[in-house]
User: Fold this.
Amino acid sequence: RKEVEQDPGPFNVPEGATVAFNCTYSNSASQSFFWYRQDCRKEPKLLMSVYSSGNEDGRFTAQLNRASQYISLLIRDSKLSDSATYLCVVNKHYGGSQGNLIFGKGTKLSVKP
Amino acid sequence: DVKVTQSSRYLVKRTGEKVFLECVQDMDHENMFWYRQDPGLGLRLIYFSYDVKMKEKGDIPEGYSVSREKKERFSLILESASTNQTSMYLCASSLEDEAFFGQGTRLTVV
Assistant:
């Protein structure tokens, strides 16, 4: 099982649609989880952290299910500007270091007018 | 604003050349990383460093080395560039868990 797995998409949705992405991770000891956004030919940027209790930021909702080892991202009322690749990211610890971020391959979202 | 700066946006090198990719961050972060990103393979960790002069291998360290002589600077070295090292290289630094990326260096080895 790959460390972090995502459906690569693409997800093609109309403006105003609700779209959900899922991500699974293999290391049950992982402690921190994130969604990053990467626009075409740009660097990834943090979209939001994911907490066990679930968290919401405007139209975006992230949830974590530790028992099933999956993370989700829900985008409501999609905008054209939401078109991007969404990367699921999990913190993995190497030896005594603070940890390291392992990236999924990303899910591509395309929002159409 | 955190700034992570990579020395070049685009680079073309010949097979067998020694290549240096430089990365500088201005936020006094302990952790710095080098990734490469290829279509269909996503971001893969090459090396990371959590302190000056400390380095750890990531998932694909073969053919690369790194140097961290100062906290703000993390260099990636391709000892003898090969065509399969043609890729987008991304440097990042982190405070706790959030990583901040540089704009990337697109390296082509011919």
User: Anything to note?
Assistant: The mean pLDDT of chain A is 90. The longest strand of chain A covers residues 84-92.
